[in-house]
Structures are given as C-alpha cells and as structure tokens.
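Lab notebook, design round three. We kept the backbone fixed and only want residue identities now. Task for the bench partner: fill in a sequence for the structure below.
Input structure tokens:
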C-alpha cells in the first residue's frame, strides 16, 4: 500500500482539476489525515467554494494532490457521501491519486468491518 504524507514546500506542486473525482465522506478523508498525521483545511460553513481541502503527498510516486468538495453551498454532513474533486499536475496523476485514495479508503472500510 502506498504511504500518504503531509506535503512540504519541497514537494508541493501546482495542481488543477482534470475532471477526476471520488465519492466518499468527509469523515473518511479526515480519518486518513489522522492516521498519517496530515493537517487539513476545514471551514464547514457552506459559505466558501469548498468546506474541506485535503493535501496529500505520496513519496513513492512523487505525487502531490489535493482533494476538496466544490460548491456544495451548505455545511457537509460528515458521514454523508459527497463528490470530491482531485487536483494534480495532469490527468494521469489524477487517475493515480484516485486509485491510491480508493485503496486507502477501502482499507479503512476493511478495518472498520473487522
């Protein structure tokens, strides 16, 4: 399994949305951040374009990516599934980031169901 880390200035790269999304709950993304000791942005008021913004780095892939909700216009329910955008340097990186997130979230589900 690929290890997630908090990005640093050294591995941060500009990212943009390439029409790749993932459906998950805010709590699952928060749990990933807690497991890997990664800080995230939360302003769950519905007043901004996004309520949550997560930044991840995968050292083995040299892959920086962001995950964020987009224009929900209301506070998110933490255990409700939403569409989150994935931002990366290009389309292939977005697809890879989605695969890594799906694996990580799947492992959370396995651990919870034991």
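Proposed sequence:
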């Amino acid at each position: 399994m690929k290890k997630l880390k908090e990005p640093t200035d050294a591995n941060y790269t500009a990212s943009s949305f390439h029409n790749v999304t993932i459906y998950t709950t805010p709590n699952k993304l928060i749990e990933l951040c807690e497991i890997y000791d990664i800080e995230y942005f939360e302003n769950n008021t519905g007043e901004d374009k996004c309520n949550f913004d997560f930044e991840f780095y995968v050292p083995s892939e040299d892959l920086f990516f962001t995950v964020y909700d987009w224009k929900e216009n209301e506070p998110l329910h933490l255990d409700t599934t939403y569409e989150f955008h994935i931002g990366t340097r290009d389309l292939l990186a977005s697809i890879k980031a989605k695969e890594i997130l799906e694996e990580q979230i799947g492992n959370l589900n396995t651990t919870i169901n034991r």
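Keep this in mind before ordering anything: The helical segments are 26-36, 91-112.
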